[in-house]
């Protein structure tokens, strides 16, 4: 399947694996790339030396293109970017910050740059900054999200009308049918996060993977908008956050409650009570833990079948 995204990244299928903290290490990224998608290493939970190690191991595990996702709300950005350049990574996804900050620097090094947005306003800013493509992430998505709560169904066509660069849809996409729907709305590809959380190769804890496949409709909620909006599975920590809101907590009190290492505690170390468990609404549709390559294969098979069914309706 060839389109603007597969040509831009030199991949077989228009499926991008989300670069998620505590989840997207070299094993997952290389598995997705080997299956024909674009694997991403999630730098947000990595110290600079750890990122270098993951990049080097990913190079040994795949000869296919892969990239690095860099959330700009984390420290050590200068060091992370220097390592990306030194290790000759050719694709970088930036998120949670101003795209103008790093786009020119990266493009001057010959790197393809993609920026993640959650609104039309920021999509236009990203295009103006010179990015090669945009990920538009709807309110359904897991992890850090947009404050405006715009759903993928609304966000994709709104952005498609106003930008000319390739568009990647994210948020609520875990199946081939959802992939087809996103592309009908105007996306050139999809970015898939939550489905790959429940994969064999994902580096998160088995407890978290099992919590994801047990999640039902309504088990997640977008919260902590005063800090950085994040969609969480409802657990004891989540309830502590809600109690803090009910008691009129200040931003500083919310920061103190969140503390340091809360996401690592939940997703990487498997503390399902006191940890921060970031996942999308689509977790309600994920029922098993599978190899990443199989996930890509099944998504593409379902996509082609759904496309044929759609064509037969007319």
Which helices and strands appear, and what pairs or packs with what?
Elements: H1 4-9, E1 15-17, H2 26-34, E2 39-42, H3 48-61, E3 66-71, H4 77-86, E4 91-95, H5 103-108, E5 112-117, H6 120-129, E6 133-137, E7 143-144, H7 152-160, E8 167-170, H8 176-184, E9 189-192, H9 194-197, H10 206-214, E10 220-223, E11 230-233, H11 236-246, H12 251-258, H13 262-268, H14 292-312
Parallel strand pairs: 1-9, 2-3, 3-4, 4-5, 5-6, 6-8, 8-9
Antiparallel strand pairs: 7-11, 10-11
What radius of gyration results from the CA coordinates? 18 Å
CATH architecture verdict: Alpha-Beta Barrel
Q: Which blocks of ≥5 consecutive residues have pLDDT under 50?
A: none
* Percent range of helical residues: 40-55%
Compact summary:
The protein is an alpha/beta fold and 314 residues long. Helices cover 42% and strands 15% of the residues.
Overview features:
15% strand; 11 strands; three-stranded antiparallel sheet; 14 helices; single chain; globular; eight-stranded parallel sheet; alpha/beta; 314 residues; TIM Barrel
What does this structure look like?
It is a single chain. 42% of the residues lie in helices and 15% in strands. The protein is an alpha/beta fold and 314 residues long. The protein has a single domain, classed as Aldolase class I (TIM Barrel), CATH 3.20.20. The longest helix is centred in the C-terminal third of the chain and has 21 residues, at 292-312. The protein is globular. The model has no long low-confidence stretch (mean pLDDT 96).
């Amino acid at each position: 399947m060839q389109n603007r995204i597969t040509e831009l990244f030199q991949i077989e299928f228009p499926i991008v694996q989300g670069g998620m903290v505590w989840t997207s290490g070299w094993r997952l990224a290389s598995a997705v790339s080997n299956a024909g998608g674009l694997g991403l290493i999630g730098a947000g939970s990595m110290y600079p030396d750890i990122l270098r190690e993951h990049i080097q191991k990913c190079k040994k595990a795949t000869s296919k293109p892969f990239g690095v996702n860099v959330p700009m709300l984390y420290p050590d950005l200068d060091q992370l970017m220097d390592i990306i350049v030194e290790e000759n990574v050719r694709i970088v996804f930036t998120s949670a910050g101003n795209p103008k900050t790093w786009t020119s620097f990266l493009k001057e090094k010959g790197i393809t740059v993609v920026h993640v947005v959650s609104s039309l306003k920021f999509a236009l800013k990203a295009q103006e900054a010179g990015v090669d493509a945009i990920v538009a992430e709807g309110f359904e998505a897991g992890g850090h999200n947009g404050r405006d709560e715009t759903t993928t169904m609304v966000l994709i066509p709104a952005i498609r009308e106003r930008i000319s660069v390739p568009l990647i849809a994210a948020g609520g996409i875990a199946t081939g049918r959802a992939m087809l729907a996103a592309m009908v709305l105007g996306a050139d590809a999809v970015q898939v996060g939550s489905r790959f959380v429940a994969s064999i190769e994902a580096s998160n804890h088995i407890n978290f993977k099992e919590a994801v496949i047990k999640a039902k409709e309504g088990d997640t909620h977008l919260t902590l908008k005063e800090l950085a909006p994040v969609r969480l599975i409802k657990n004891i920590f989540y309830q502590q956050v809600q109690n803090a809101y009910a008691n009129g907590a200040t931003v500083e009190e919310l920061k103190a409650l969140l503390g340091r290492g809360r996401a690592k505690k939940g997703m990487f170390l498997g503390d399902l009570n006191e940890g921060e468990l970031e996942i999308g609404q689509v977790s309600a549709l994920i029922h098993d833990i599978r190899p990443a390559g199989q996930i890509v294969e099944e998504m593409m098979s379902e996509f082609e079948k759904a496309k044929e069914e759609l064509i037969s309706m007319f």
